[in-house]
Every structure is written in C-alpha cells, then in structure tokens.
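Escalated from tier 1: RUQ holo job.
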Amino acid sequence: MNQWTKRSLVMGTLLVGGVLGLSYCSNKAEQQIQQQEQGNLNASADLKTLMAARNLTEGDVEAALKTYTPTGKKDEYMIFASGGQSGQVLAIGVPSMRLLKVIGVFTPEPWQGYGYGDDTNAILAGGNQGTHKLTWADVHHPNLSETKGDYDGQYLFVNDKANARIAVVDLADFATKQIVANPLVASDHGGAFVTPNTDYVIETSQYPAPLGRDYAPLSDYKAKYRGLAMFWKFDRTKGRIDPAASFGVELPPYSQDLADAGKLVSDGWVFIGSWNTEMATGGTLQGKPAIESGASQNDMDYLHIIDWKKAEQVVAAGKTTTMKGVKVITLQTAADENVLTLVGEPKSPHGADVTPDGTAIVVGGKLDTHGTVYEFSKIKDQIAAKKFESKDEFGVPVLSFKDTIRGQVELGLGPLHTVFDDKGNAYTSIFLESKVAKWSLKDMKLIEKLSVHYNVGHILAAEGDTVSPDGKYVVAMNKMSIDRFTGVGPLYPQNFQLIDITGDKMKLLADMPIGIGEPHYSQMIKTDKLKPLKMYTPGFNPATGVKDPNAVEGGKERIERHGDVVDVYMTAVRSHFTPDQVEVNEGDTVNFHITSLEQAEDQTHGFTVDMYNVNISLEPGKHENVTIKADMPGVYPMYCTEFCSALHLEMQGFFLVKPKGAK
Ligand code: RUQ
Ligand code: CUA
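Tier 2 regenerated the structure:
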C-alpha cells in the first residue's frame, strides 16, 4: 500500500468513522497521519455540516465513499453496455459509473470517424441486408470472449435484434472490426452468447418467418415459418467470424428468446427459452386476439436444448441443406439426431441463464412468479436414455418438466433475468415489482428483495457470466426512471443502478442516467484483464488489421494523377497536413491516404473535407483511406477536427475543385 492510498483509506475511516461511529485504526503510523489530517480539517464536524446542508444520510455518505473516484484513480471494473437503438456500445467504469467510451458498432460514430472513411464504411457495409443500407440497430446483448469459461478481455460480440446481425469488437483498440448479416432470418435475440472457449458466437432468431426471408402467407405459419439457432464460428487468430465454417439449426416457429451456453459439466450444450408456443399471429383487424393474448394462453412454453457438439458431427457428416450459402441442420434432422430437445418452461419465459458451475439452468417466466431451476445432469441423462415424455407437433422430443427440474423458488411478479455471485447466490430482476431478488441456489430460498427505480430489465454482475463470478457488484438496468432525474422532456433517461452485494444486505450505491437507449444487457469485466493499445504501429490500418499498403512515411508525401483518379498520399503531425493544398478537376475521384506520424500518447488528429461528409479520426500511428468524388466545384477547407495543439486551428489546408471547362 503506498502512502497515498494509505492516507485516503485513513481519511475514509476518519470520515465514515466520525459519522457512523465505526472504530478507528489504532496503528501508530496511521494515528500520525490522522493527526496530520486533523491539523487542517475537523473532519467529522465539517462533514456533518455538509451532510446537513445537502440533506444526506449516513447511508448516502457510505455509498459516496464506496463509489467516489478522485481524479487520476481508475475503476476496478468495466461494463460493456448495450446502447440499444443507438446501435452503439457503452464502456462504463465501475464503481465510478463514469462513461469512458461510446463504441461505434452498427451506427456511424463521427468522432471515431466510424462510417466516414473507406475502411470503416466497408465494415458497416458488411452489415447491410439485401438492398438496404442499414444505419441503425437494436443492440441487445454484448458478450465478452471467453477462455475456459472466463472472460479473457480480447473481444466483444453484440447482436442487432432488428436486422439479425452480429458485430465483433476488438478490445485491443475498442473498435468494431466486422459485422455479419444473417441471410436467413429477419430478427434475432438470443445472442451474442459465446461457448466457453469462444468457438462459436450464438445468434438465435426471435420472430419466426420463412428461412431465407422468402414470402409465405401467415396461413402457412406452421408449415413454412421457422426459427433458427445460428452458430457463428469465431476464428480467434484472425479475430473475425468465419461465415463459411458456421452453421444453423432450424427451429420450430415458436418465438425463441434468450439463450445461454453451457459451461464446465454442461459445456457442449446451449439453452434457449421461447414463448408463443401457441404460434399466435394476431389479426386484430379481423377480430382475432392480439399476439400478446394469443401468445399467453399456454401455461408452459418450451426451453430448447441444443447439443452443439452433436450438431458439429451432423454438419461434418454432411447431413445439412444449404440455404443462401449457410449449412442448415433441418428441424427434422435436428429432432431425429437429438440435436434439439425440448422441455416445458413456465410461462412466457424470458431469461435462460446457466449457473457458474454449469450444473443448472435458471429460467424466469414473465407470467409466472417463480425462478425455475433445471438440473443439467437430469436433462443429459434422459436425453442419453431417450426417455422422452412426448413430441411436439414438429416431431421434436420433449422431456418431462418435473423429472428435469431441481426446483422452483417463489420470487415475485415478472422475473426476467438471473445473474450470480461467488457465494452460490442468484440475483433475479423482477420487472413488475421493480425489485432485485437475491436467492440461494443451494437452498432454493429467497433471501432478500431490493427496490430499484424502476422496472428493471436485465441485471448484470461482476464477471457474472463466467465460471468464477466476483460477487461485489450487481447493476440493475432499469427501463424507467420516472422521478429520479431532472426532466428532459417526455423521453426519460434509462437508469443503471449500482448495487453493492458484498454485505449480508444488498445496498444501492449510485444511479447512472443513460441518455441514449434503450440499453438491454451488459457484461462487467475486471479491468486488469483488458490490455488496450496506447497507439498503433506506424501505418497500421485498424479496420483491415494490417499495415496499410498505402501507408505514408514522412518525406514521401505526394500527389499522383492516373487519368481522372487522384491519389493523395498525406501525413498528419502536429500541426500540419502534408500536402496542404490539393487541387483537382470536377469529376475526379480523389483518394486520400492519410497516415498519422504521431507516436505520442493521446495525440489524435481529425481530418475533414468540408461539405463532403468526411471525418476521420487519426490516432497516433493510424492509417486511413478516404475516397471522395469531386462533384462540387469550389474551394473547401480541409482541417483537423481535434484540438490537438496550440496551433490546432492552423492545422488546415485547401481542397480546390476546378469546375469543368475552367482554365
Ligand atoms: S432483453 S429486458 Cu435481453 Cu433483449 Cu431482457
Ligand atoms: Cu491536429 Cu488539430
């Protein structure tokens, strides 16, 4: 412990001790420090005045001391949170709940130059579906890459529910590298979960439709509409998903929901919840019930159990059909080969979460008051013995509910998602009651419920999806904030609430309003597992992952003309671009190849050509390519968009476009 931390600890003890009646440390050296501190601050008296003035309780002060992070001090954890409809991912420090980065993923992000230069445009274009250029996403579930079931801090995967896509973010530079568009389905939800060694990134569909996005009338729902579990193969050496090595498993036309991969004893299996086993399709104008009531008739829906190691063998044996370039195990084959098995789950469930030891799966039924815990060994044994209770109407074997569960715990109204700590406890979000329920997996008993504000959707825990959760923190991701913050019009912020779970009782520590949304899930990783780069090696192109063939060295800047194509080899360094005058003819295609020559930490430049919708971010060493069609004659400033030095404003140049026919 260095002197500085010792001092702050003693200060903390002093402050809290004075107020809360805790005992002081009696160590001699620490007493000396205390005396020094008391020399210039009558801590408890001043603190009491401050508390009274701000109307703070002792509990508030304790929460402040647990979260306050002075300048220069760093967070112990980082949250990667879904940015919802913004299409982005948020990186947030814990316990400070400070926003550290908005990672551009499915949506252009101008500051990072994401979507305003050739290379990142190409990444975004990889996510286009059909003839449509997509500029937004409904991001639901960020998931960190794992090694042996533990977060390894290397990659992050996220799904886009609205357009059935998965993105890969490299945590070396917190930048998106790839978007894969699923050609078979029109929505997804159960993603982007990983298997324990990140062999696969899983994406399961939500709303059934004909696979391959063909047309079929709703009257053909049972015959032609289907769900899909996609197993995207992740190539770790390349840091990219390999679509050619990926495969899908066709599912019945129930609405598949959240999914989780088995771990340790259940490694090799995937569990997917579902609702609308009624296969309701609405038809309100024709006097039929809305989907919400049509889909809520059955007391039980189906938990889908996929043996993905078996599925791999079936794929290797060639027992697949190819649809739009994707190898698919048909529903019939999946049922016949016991790749897919079902078991009842109550009622209109949402989350399906595997426990850290891999022995159980917890399901929350939105219209049921229980957390239901399935015993994996019972599931496995009965599948191995082919001990099925029945088949569904698509011929998929169904296990007995009562013979597969460990038990049920009464949790409250609207249980959704469950996360875990390091002491064998589970924490379930209770949507309708706006509560977090803590319960014991071992005793199957409810321990405590904590109010959150309000209508909690997902919750997350420190390293909570791994084989070794850390305990410490849970975060409630609340859909509503009602009376928590100063008004900003009818669209209210979402509200993340940090909860301390180290003591016997859960304790609410802090609120963090989220001004973009709507976030769904997050994961929280220990920051010492992250090894982010400080800068790129000179000429590196982060979008392609290699040194760019057009990288420019200092002194080799030039402009080359080939017919009506102009290549500008440019460098950026404090505080000038070389070249700084680029004159072309109307109609030319101009390729800017720009390398930052900086090798000093945090020395970023930007580059824009006014009116041409170009803005790139040139972090130290980075190379980027930008192509523009010089179709607007005139004189346009090119300038650096990042206040990089005292002479930042002078980091400017001219882009001149000579009109056709001009001399
Ligand atoms: S969602 S609030 Cu994971 Cu898409 Cu549950
Ligand atoms: Cu470079 Cu401002």
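The two ends are 73 Å apart (CA to CA).
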